[in-house]
Amino acid sequence: MTKQALLVMDVQKAIVDRFTGDDGYLPRLRGAIDAATGAGVPVIYVVIGFRPGFPEISTRNKIFNATRSAGGFSGDAMEVPADVAPRPGDIVVTKKRVSAFAGSDLEMVLRAGEIDSLVLTGIATSGVVLSTLRQAADLDFALTVLSDGCLDGDPEVHRVLTEKVFPHQADVVTVDEWVKSVS
What we know:
- This is Nicotinamidase-related amidase.
- Pfam families: Isochorismatase (PF00857).
- The chain has seven helices and six strands, in the order βααβαβαβαβαβα.
- It has helices spanning 13-16, 25-38, 62-69, 106-112, 125-138, 155-165, 175-182; strands spanning 4-9, 43-48, 91-95, 117-123, 142-151, 171-173.
- The longest helix is centred in the first third of the chain and has 14 residues, at 25-38.
- It is globular and about 45 Å long.
């Protein structure tokens, strides 16, 4: 029997604020979180975070060094928005790179919970979702991507990934379709 977990990845205020074009995103995500909780599916939040002074960020890392230089990793900007915030009992994993597995203890948490199937949501489709999907597939997890539970700054990139790339390694469904399957 499969045991799945819902991953809510990089849904932090500073990141969500860059994607203001989809006002329905957080309510849809809340629907997936509520359905998971109601069905006894663990909800695991994956957030990006660093120590004071950012010793984990190399000057050679273009993405994270630029964000650090712009002050993008500070204060409450890195908190999960209240609309979808973790509840007591939800697990929060802190990562240090793009993939949810990179620099985190996510794999250990999943293996300890005997989880073998992941449901992926997050921002951005071409970032954390793509990187995590590829690594999770290589680790032999069964995968589902909630297409409208992911956002990307480029709608065409999101479409190509969810319609053409992800289906090679994952089932791709909408939040509503997944909610019906776990209810």
